[in-house]
Structure prediction request, 396 residues.
Amino acid sequence: MIKGFPAVMAKLIKEFSKMPGVGVRSAERLTFHILKSSAEDVKALSRYIGEVKERVQFCEKCNNLSECEICSICSDNKRDPGKLCVVSSPNGVIAMEKANAYNGLYYVLLGELSPLDGVGPRELKIEGLLKRVKDENINEIILSTNFTTEGETTALYIMKLLEPFKIRVTRLARGVPVGASLEYADGATLQRAYEERR
Amino acid sequence: MIKGFPAVMAKLIKEFSKMPGVGVRSAERLTFHILKSSAEDVKALSRYIGEVKERVQFCEKCNNLSECEICSICSDNKRDPGKLCVVSSPNGVIAMEKANAYNGLYYVLLGELSPLDGVGPRELKIEGLLKRVKDENINEIILSTNFTTEGETTALYIMKLLEPFKIRVTRLARGVPVGASLEYADGATLQRAYEERR
Prediction:
């Protein structure tokens, strides 16, 4: 029981403080904000929270987040169906879309291989990927898993699986971030940037 | 339009990012958290947000936040009705209650005098305070507005108003915070702590 607050405020503070990066203090501040907000804003917030949970599902074709069975990207016929960008999570799709550089389709693995955490190939959505490579007319697979140990392992694993298909498989380039100065780039990144210079 | 997100997620991200201290990035993280949370947690969060706005009102006696016309503190007959602690906002009540040192009643002014921001005595709930001092059998008023310029001004103003009533009026002590080392206390605090030594 949080002293001094009306019961329903105490309950809301408890719910808010379950959210990532929200401590009790921030939860109190958010609760006061709700009190001060307009009735319409509060209604909208409350409704969208429920709707996100009820409506958002995984696209049956690419496993991306979607409000329909097939997501808006998969059903967009202006996109190049010959390119398939493989990412670990819906966040990857969002990052790529924000960058505004890619016009093909996606496939979301919904995970990355991590043997130490008990995540093997069975935990990822790999079958659907192989099925698409067999059934569809794909020219290029762009492996866009993260550049972490787990992401690199996953990329290597999928690269091996795709070998029999004689398909072009690429990986996003590694290097110094745009706008960064050399002195702040770490050694491993600089080494890669040098090896893969062009 | 936030690219890559299903429409309802984009709407929720927009609502979350209206909250204090929540940028677009945090709003995205909170939205993903909602997606991953259990259906019960999401239902609870959505419901409590609506309920806080619908149910919480100001206590008719002390202006504190309450779910009833009279708040739980004012209607608690185990508290000392002879002591009245005057605070600027419901936050003040909560802070005092957390400290667990006070067993009297409260009066919330719902503001502090700030002539530069156009907040004069009329904007505060001062009449209700004077009425209570007249009508009830109060022995002591503890002025617990903030120790900021606005809070001190408000305390001084109310002290003047209460002079005719020949009632004991006190102010919370100023000094070095418990657990703080002297070297980090600011000069004004140390000066006060020295003057008000006991």
Remarks:
- The mean pLDDT of chain A is 90.
- DSSP finds seven helices and six strands in chain A.
